[in-house]
User: What shape does this take?
Amino acid sequence: MTITILIIIGTVIVSIAAFQKRELHEKLMFDPYSIVINKTWYRFFSYALVHADWGHLLINMFVLYSFGTNVEYLFSYFFGGKAVLYFLLLYVGGVFVSVIPSFEKNKHNPYYVAVGASGAVSAVLFSSILMYPQGEIIFLLLPIPIPAYIFGILYLVYSWYMAKRGRDNIGHDVHFWGAIFGFAFTILLKPQLFLSFIHEITSFLR
Assistant: This one.
């Protein structure tokens, strides 16, 4: 039983409960205005346990399972006995850091709310890309393998652009900052990984 599986089980249980009980959903979701007015600081973390709908939940948990187990394995290889602690810090840190810009932007907006583990999942995904840039990522709708580092660049550009447009209800800024955190946090844990990342990319391009 890996940490990734335990996180998925816990998230699925709470999300399903929140689907059935709107009061629970509203109590756990990220609500910057409520955080400021009612001091509900726990919302910086609890929002990752609830999702907008089944599709939102399944996509996040599928991506987390696909990359979380790989990151756990690589963390065990690089960090030994500290791997579990570091993985938890990566995930929980992604939950928290990814919504800080949204909090600052919307703390006086009583209509802004957000849910989902996307920021943490992005952190795990980009930690994986840093440690294994030569890997390949396949979209369900476009079954063509894309090198992980190229996918990472496209993901960041798309998330940044869509966050600037702000024309849908998807938290693209959360995706962006979660990804940045995951990449930077893993580098802080082991700076040599960034040099290996650059080496792998340059070798691939030769």
